[in-house]
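user: can you give me the structure for this one chain? tokens are fine.
assistant: on it. calling the predictor now.
[tool input]
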Amino acid sequence: MDAPPAQSGPSTPAAADGDPTPASTGSGVQPDAPEIDDADAVQVGPPLGAAVATASRAGRNLPAAIGVGAGLAALVLVTLFTSKIAFAAVIAGAVGVGIWELVRAIRPVEARPPMVPLIIGGVGTTVMTYNGGTESLLLGLLLTVVAVVIWRIPDGPVGFQRDVTAAVLVAAYVPFLAGFAVLLEVEDDGVMRIVAFIATVACSDIGGYVAGVLAGRHPMAPTVSPKKSWEGMAGSLIACAVAGAAFLELGFDNGAWWEGVIYGLAIAVAATLGDLTESMIKRDLGVKDMSSLLPGHGGLMDRLDSLLFAAPVAYLLLTAFAPAT
């Protein structure tokens, strides 16, 4: 976390009443305000001498992160173990919110992907995938893109290519990647597959966080995510390899521990790429968080970035290593 700027010298008295000349520094020049990169900005802590809120070296408020994570985990677990339809509805809702956040974040930079066909198409793709499988996921993406083009035509040619390109990015990034989580769920042992998927991604986050806090010294991508370190990546790889080995050996009749190691390592890489990709998008858009939907913690997409990239990897590898019987 960046330290607050130090005062550059003794304070100077304010201008006398009626004197239009403002108070100045000893040099007679007003100091410029320090520049802050919004992408790295963190909430300013309490004054000196006050109790400092618990925060991680990665810039996250740990109690807030735990509270949000616990709430989302409760929603996921209750619906996952209650009804496949209920869990699919949670995914559809997350897709709709994610599209809303991403479109709103993109629009200030002049691209205007149409919100309505993206949300309808994204949620519809989730429903189609739940009922029809892989082919329906691909068809849903295609239909969403076609709907976007048709919707955008009446607005004229100015910015058409820009708007449609941004819309295709949104459609591929949110509903298409999320559709692989639906494909995991619809299997007969879908609950186990979803648990193995989400828990392994969580291990990546936890392992990376702990290793980064304890030993993080070498930045992985300083221009994209300055607080992400190679030591944290090593922690993610180790945690995911252990989790993957346990899940494939114990959770699936036809899985093996060594396949789980491969699965875990791949999930760690995919989850990290997802995190870095969203960081790159946010830097390009000039925003710190995708939204303020989760108070003090950013938007829903800020919590889904790793999961979205890991979902297709989990689906492909679990299908290969532990095919449904």
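assistant: here you go. Strands lie at 219-221, 225-229. The CA atoms of residues 124 and 140 lie 7 Å apart.
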